[in-house]
Amino acid sequence: MAAAAEVTDGQIRVLVVDDQGVIRMGLSMILDHEPDLTTVAQAENGEEALRLIDQYDPDVVLMDIRMPVMDGLVATERITSANKEAGRARPAVLVLTTFDDEAYVLSAVRAGASGFLLKDTDPDLLVSAVRAVYRGDSLVDPSSTRVLLERCMELERQVGSGTTQPAPPQPDGRWVGLLGQLSEREREILVWMARGLSNRDLATKLFVSETTVKTHVSSVLSKLSLSSRVQAVVVAYEAGVVRPGEAEVRWES
What we know:
By secondary structure, the chain is of the alpha/beta class. It has 2 domains: 131 residues, Response regulator (Rossmann fold), CATH 3.40.50; 83 residues, Arc Repressor Mutant, subunit A (Orthogonal Bundle). Helices cover 50% and strands 11% of the residues. It contains 11 helices and 5 strands, in the order E-H-E-H-E-H-E-H-E-H-H-H-H-H-H-H. A 5-stranded parallel beta sheet has the order 2-1-3-4-5, sandwiched between helices. Helix 2 runs parallel beside helix 3 and helix 6 packs across helix 11. Keywords: DNA-binding, Phosphoprotein, Transcription, Transcription regulation.
């Protein structure tokens, strides 16, 4: 583990977790180059990350998925569970993945990750993503997120059907009752989130302020008992409200 950085007031504190030292160092260099970001510590597995969270109290955790001792999925679930028990929103977890990890992405989101990025992402997007999850926006690179989620869910359906051919998408009925609690505007917000719109895009489309959008998003998450915006997008697909590659929106009556 690298030595902890000195933290200046107002900076976003980041814990970098990856089992490859070169990647940890590269990510840290990118983050530390920004005046409002600082890497407070580095960890080589999930177990070490949990210890360092207690020690350094980071705002954001950049979390690799496949690591020895404790992988990123288990660590993410423990972090978000601890946050929920303590009634806090941080640290937010931003998962680092590759397209080879597609099967793990949905598990990471369901474990409470606020978003995910490809490891070879542009440095500017990495920096923007850290700031986004720190603000609570949670959906990182909406267009890429939507495409990757669709690919993951299609893979999951194929595995579940025992075939390499795409299985017809079947709405998950467990969400119907909860979705019925949403207001018309909240339903609209959920649909457009699933289609890849950011908070700013939503504000422009609906002719409201970003603050109003965030209020609606928070209400959606609360009513659906979810911890992140990305989880809400997954629910929209699982419930059949929005389906991969289709523009039509479906609501169960």
